[in-house]
Specification:
Blueprint (H helix, E strand, L loop, with lengths): L11 H16 L3 H18 L10 H10 L5 H16 L12 E2 L9 H12 L6 E2 L14 E6 L4 E7 L13 H22 L3 E6 L8 E7 L3
Antiparallel strand pairs: 1-2, 3-4, 4-6, 5-6
């Protein structure tokens, strides 16, 4: 990954420590060590991200480090470390290693220009990007994916859905939990739409027509020509 001159960084020691953390993540295979290194790398990256003197990191890498900063679940943190190590060694990587997690989208979409642009806008606005483990279809509950998931819908459009406890739907839910989840998802997706609209996207709400109360399914957004 391209690096800026250390003399241009507000705290060169932090930049050097970050590089050392990432190099160690690439080299180590110990799960506990990976988690500790990832916590340290995420904390350092938070102070470096966005500084004009630092060469822009691919959004997939930045999203992974940002998500790691808010992750406490050890398996998820280790999985993010595997993914960050892949992207540190090969920024354009789409390798779907079973040990690696992914953030905000499937690995094959991570470098899609519109997905990356939407991810960056949402991440910088503080919207949490969902963290997925390899077998994410079977990970529900408090350690399931929480946050926004992005998928391309053509060349210029993305669709954003919202995961709560590993699901982006209401399947198997019963009242009163169904009502609470619906309300939370509606509010979260409305905020996603507002952030993207403010960032210059044309954003629209996709809602169900089969429910008595309002149910937002996703946000469809595209950048103007």
């Amino acid at each position: 990954m391209a690096l800026a001159e250390l003399s241009n960084i507000p705290d060169p020691a932090d930049h050097d420590a970050f590089r050392q953390c990432m190099d160690s993540i690439v080299r180590t295979g110990d799960t506990a060590s990976l988690a500790d290194l990832m916590r340290r790398a995420a904390a350092l990256f938070a102070g470096l991200d966005g500084h004009p003197a630092v060469s822009a990191a691919p959004e997939a890498f930045a999203a992974t480090l940002t998500a790691a900063g808010a992750t406490t679940h050890l398996p998820a943190l280790s999985a993010l470390a595997w993914r960050a190590g892949q992207l540190w060694a090969e920024p354009a990587s789409v390798d779907d290693d079973r040990r690696a997690g992914f953030v905000g989208c499937l690995p094959e979409y991570a470098h899609h220009p519109r997905v990356a642009a939407a991810s960056s806008a949402l991440r910088r606005a503080g919207i949490p990007l969902a963290v997925f483990l390899h077998d994410w279809h079977y990970c529900y509950g408090e350690h399931g994916a929480q946050g926004v998931y992005l998928a391309p819908n053509g060349e210029r459009t993305v669709e954003a859905s919202w995961f709560i406890d590993g699901r982006d739907n209401e399947r198997s839910l019963r009242r009163p939990r169904l009502d609470r989840v619906r309300e939370a998802r509606n509010a979260a997706l409305t905020r996603v739409r507002d952030v993207l609209s403010t960032a210059g996207w044309n954003a629209y709400t996709k809602a169900s027509t089969n429910t008595q109360s309002r149910r937002v399914l996703s946000i469809v957004a595209s950048l103007p020509l």
